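Q: Got a minute? One more chain.
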Amino acid sequence: MDDRYKLVIITGSVREGRFGPTVSSWVAGQARTHGGFDVDVVDLAGIDIPLALPEVPPKFAGEDYPRPAGMAALTSALDGADAFVVVTPEYNHSYPASLKAAVDWHFTHWTAKPVAFVSYGGAAGGRHAVLHLENVLTELHAVTIRDGLAFPNYFTEWRDGHPLDPEAPGYAKTLLDQLAWWAGALRSAREAAPYPA
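A: Always. Here it is, folded:
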């Protein structure tokens, strides 16, 4: 029996020329090396995510929310996940609209699940985007992981798909260790009793 946790890594930017897939690929490699996860990378650029939401959802339940057919792969991945890593750039001191739309279309899929963050950007390394995401996902009853990864000045600090910082894999391991601990604790809790949202 496979006792690994289902990890969904979300590439949050859909911008032309984006760096997100490079970061997501590296994070996925670190997660596979870690060994505690079955890894699935979901790139929002390949998902139909309308900005216009339905006026009133018929029920406050994920499976009954009227989502476009082009969103089915994202919905299925989020539903089956034990844990998430959100890979985000920083745009104007926040995160991309594509990521906010994906979250808003799936407001119940984060409940009682852990979320870690990997960000990249200029001098701040995307940290402003993560601060905003932490607030949003806490509102949706997710558990955010303290030790994230931030890559300042990624345009000069990465080469051949890897960060130049030799300590980056160690930081990634800390993030993944914490994420695995929370994934196990929260999966056990969800199986024992419904979360009182």
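A: The chain has one domain: 5-192.
Q: Perfect, thanks.
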